[in-house]
Structures are given as structure tokens and as C-alpha cells.
Amino acid sequence: MKPLALWIAFSVLVYAPARAWGFFGHQRINRMAVFTLPPEMFAFYKYHIRYITENAVNPDRRRYAVEGEAERHFIDIDVYGDSAIYKMPRRWEDAVAKYSEDTLRAYGIVPWHLQLIKFQLVKAFKERNVNQILRISADMGHYIGDANVPLHTTQNYNGQMSGQYGIHGFWESRVPELLADDYDYFFEKAQYLKSPMAKAWEAVTNAHLALDSVLRFEKELSKQFDEDKKYSFETRTNMTVKVYSKEFTTAYSQMLGGQVERRMRASIQMVGDFWYTCWVDAGQPDLDKLLQMTPEQLKMIEDEEKNIPIVPNIKTRQHETGLIGEFPEDKPTYYFGRNVFRRRND
Ligand SMILES: [Zn+2]
After folding, report:
1. Ligand 1: distance of its center to the CA of 146 in Å?
2. What is the C-alpha separation between 328 and 326, in angstroms, rounded?
3. Of the candidates 266, 281, 115, which has an alpha carbon nearest to the alpha carbon of residue 196?
């Protein structure tokens, strides 16, 4: 690579923050989950779909501002040894007794956090607290999305231990961003979960079992692509960004046999299941009655979330120091905002 190109690539990489599933993936997961809901919930979530979609990445914003946030997004299950995904105690108390709370927090707590946030959403429904229902629903969608990502279940989370630095953003941002429009978005209706705890562990387990191919196929494919064919440059909001080329991305996705799509679909379905289960456990409150929020109230919620500072003042593991394949979140996208739905209903 020429010195100038190298400099551009480096300067760009430093400034491009990453997010699990990227902005694009997290927003799509939250948005699509709304369509799995039964009629008693659908009108409320549909009305607030713009909020649910745009705030899908709030937990990542908080990672740098709130102590204790970072550990909620992953679990490095492989630090606990062979077959740890099956041996790890499912209940928090049992896991703490076995490994200590400090250790668990150091290596991530996503499956346990899903249980905690499930309680929080039930409580919000019981209290008919619209702000909290929306806020927690959006957050929950985020953590569920993270729990389904293979690279969120390993200490080699960015390929840094296997010479594949940058693979995190490649798998969860670049692949869906290029290919997700072709995914199948037909879903089952949300199901009641008898054991959200078991579901959370099932998600992490399936994600972890997919990890081997995530890493191995990238390595195999890289042998077939010269460096200048593997990567390309794109301009985004006046910045030149080094990205995995379209050819490489498509070939990787094909090699994975639709794995990224499966993990995204599993996330969407699971978000719907969790929202629905919380609502049922709260006694199925009448959400249609909660629809009459004033624009001021809505704006207040949105402003609160937007004001979370993105300041790297908290020491956290760097899932997301600027990496290839991870992009500046220039334009949050959503597809059918509240207004569109309103117009359609008119
Ligand atoms: Zn996250």
C-alpha cells in the first residue's frame, strides 16, 4: 500500500467506532421485531416504531459513559475452558459461586443481563410507564442482538488473536449492510417463553457454535484473494474508508451459507418473544390506552437518550476501537417511521 493510502486508512480506522450489528443491523432488528407482535401490542409498538428503531444503539452509546455498561454486551465464554458453553451455570447466583462476580463481569454477562432486563420490562408494563416501556424495549432489542453474534462469545472478539483483525465489523456491519436487503423477513408470531433464561442461553450457545466458521472461512477465503481484491475504498460523508470489498464480502457470506442472516433472523424473533413474554407476565396491560402521549412527552424521552455523551472516559475493553469494516454512524436509517404508518392508516 502506498504511504498516502496507508495514512488515509489509518486515520479513518482510528475514528470509525464499531457497534455490534452496527447501526444498521441493530436498528433493523428492533424495527422488524415489532412486526412479530400480536394485535394487542402491535398498535402501540407500531406507533412508537421510530423511537424503538432509532434508539436501538443507545446501550452502545452508554458503553463509554456509564460504569458497568460494557460487560452487558458480550460473554467471552471460551475463557472458562472446554465446553464452557454447556458447563457454565445458567443462574447468576450459581455462576457467581463458581467463578466470582468480578470474574464474570470481566468477561461479560450478556445472558444474565437479559434476565435482569426482562424483569425491568415486566415492571414497566405493570406500572404502565410508557417512557420505561419504550426505553427498556429498545435496550432489550440491542442486548438480544448482541447475544446472537458469534464474535460476542469469545475473547478473540476481533480476530486479534488469530491474525484477522477487523473481522468483528466485517461480520456484523459490512455483511448485513451489503446483503440484508435480500434477507427473508417473514416471521412467526411472537411466542411466549416459559424460560427466558433458557432462551438467552440458547442464543449465546448457537452464536458460539457458529464462531468456528466465522473465523475459519475468513481465513480460507483470504488465501484466495490478493490484498487489493480483499479490500477497497469507499467515500462516506467526505471520508475515505477502507472496507472489505464487495466481492470478498459476497463470497464470505456465501461460504457461511446464510449464517449472518440466520443470526439476524434469530435476533428479531427473539426480541419479539421477549417483549411479548414481558407483556404477558405483566398481566397483559391495555397498551392502546397508553397510546395517547403528547408530542412533548415523546420528545422528552428522545432528547434524554440523545444527550448521553459519547465520551471515552470509562476504561472498557475495546470491542470497537476503529476497525476495518466499521463505519461512522452518519445517518441513522429507519424504514417506516411513525408518520408513514399514520399516513398508511388514514
Ligand atoms: Zn452492544
Report:
1. 6
2. 7
3. 115
Q: Model's pTM, two decimal places?
A: 0.82
Per-residue model confidence as pLDDT tens digits over 187-224: 899 999 999 999 999 999 999 999 999 999 999 999 99
The letter for the amino acid at 177 is: E
Task: Kindly list the domain boundaries of the chain, sorted by start residue.
Answer: 22-345
Rg of the Cα trace of the chain? 20
CA of 334 to the centre of ligand 1 (A): 19
Q: Quick one: 221 exposed, middle or buried, by C-beta within 10 A (0-12, 13-18, 19+)?
A: middle
pLDDT in tens, 264-285: 999 999 999 999 999 999 999 9
Could you give the 3-state DSSP secondary structure of residue 250?
Answer: helix
Give the contacts of 29 (CB within 8 A, at least 6 positions apart): 21, 56, 141, 144, 145, 264, 267, 268, 271
22-345 under CATH 1.10.575.10, yes or no:
yes
Find the 85 Cα to ligand 1 centroid distance in Å: 20
Task: Count the Cβ atoms, other than its own, within 10 Å of residue 241.
Answer: 22
Length reported for the chain:
346
- What is the rounded distance in angstroms from the CA atom of residue 272 to the CA atom of residue 254? 28
